[in-house]
């Protein structure tokens, strides 16, 4: 199980990650990765003494009020999307449990306040644990890789 601080729960967080993040699909999964936006702090901000401000969409240490605590930077967070196309409730919950277990060690490697959304495709219902792990590692690495200057050909 992921700690509460490591889970995406708000619709806005899912939407921002899917809309603005990098996407990579591998096998039975699609991973959306959004790195935090860290910008210089204006002098009148409460977190100016730390030297940076993380936008409210990324940093929300007060339980949804939009006011961040002075020195708390959120850890990387993950969310999961498993639609009815994957299977019935039992199959969807099995896939979610497997994905949560597979994502947990990767969260420590992500930058602070990064967000990932893992979307399970219908083949994930029949994929083995090892296949899901391989697909997740590959998709996460591809989503984190910087874009090349050359466009697709």
Question: How is the topology of this model organized?
Answer:
Blueprint: H1 11-20, E1 22-26, E2 29-34, E3 38-39, E4 53-54, E5 77-82, H2 89-107, E6 115-120, H3 129-144
Parallel strand pairs: 5-6
Antiparallel strand pairs: 1-2, 2-6, 3-4
Helix pairs in contact: 2-3
Write a brief caption for the model.
This protein is α+β, with helices and mostly antiparallel strands and 153 residues long. It is 29% helix and 18% strand.
How would you characterize the overall build of this protein?
- By secondary structure, this protein is α+β, with helices and mostly antiparallel strands.
- It is 29% helix and 18% strand.
- It has three helices and six strands.
- It has helices at 11-20, 89-107, 129-144; strands at 22-26, 29-34, 38-39, 53-54, 77-82, 115-120.
- The strands form two sheets. Strands 1-2-6-5 form a four-stranded mixed β-sheet, sandwiched between helices. Strands 3-4 form a two-stranded antiparallel ribbon.
- Strand 1 (22-26) and strand 2 form a beta hairpin.
- Helix 2 crosses helix 3 (129-144).
- The longest helix is centred in the middle third of the chain and has 19 residues, at 89-107.
- It is globular, with a radius of gyration of 17 Å.
């Amino acid at each position: 199980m992921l700690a509460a601080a490591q889970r995406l729960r708000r619709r806005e967080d899912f939407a921002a990650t899917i809309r603005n993040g990098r996407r990579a699909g591998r096998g039975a999964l699609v991973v959306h990765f959004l790195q935090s936006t860290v910008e210089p702090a204006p002098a009148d901000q409460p977190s100016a003494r730390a030297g940076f401000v993380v936008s409210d969409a990324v940093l929300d240490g007060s339980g949804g009020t939009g006011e961040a605590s002075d020195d708390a930077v959120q850890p990387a967070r993950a969310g999961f999307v498993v639609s009815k196309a994957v299977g019935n409730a039992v199959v969807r919950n099995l896939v979610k449990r497997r994905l949560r277990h597979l994502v947990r060690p990767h969260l420590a490697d992500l930058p602070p306040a990064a967000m990932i959304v893992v979307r399970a495709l219908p083949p994930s219902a029949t994929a083995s644990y090892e296949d899901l792990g391989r697909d997740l590692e590959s998709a996460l690495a591809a989503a984190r890789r910087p874009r090349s200057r050359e466009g697709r050909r």
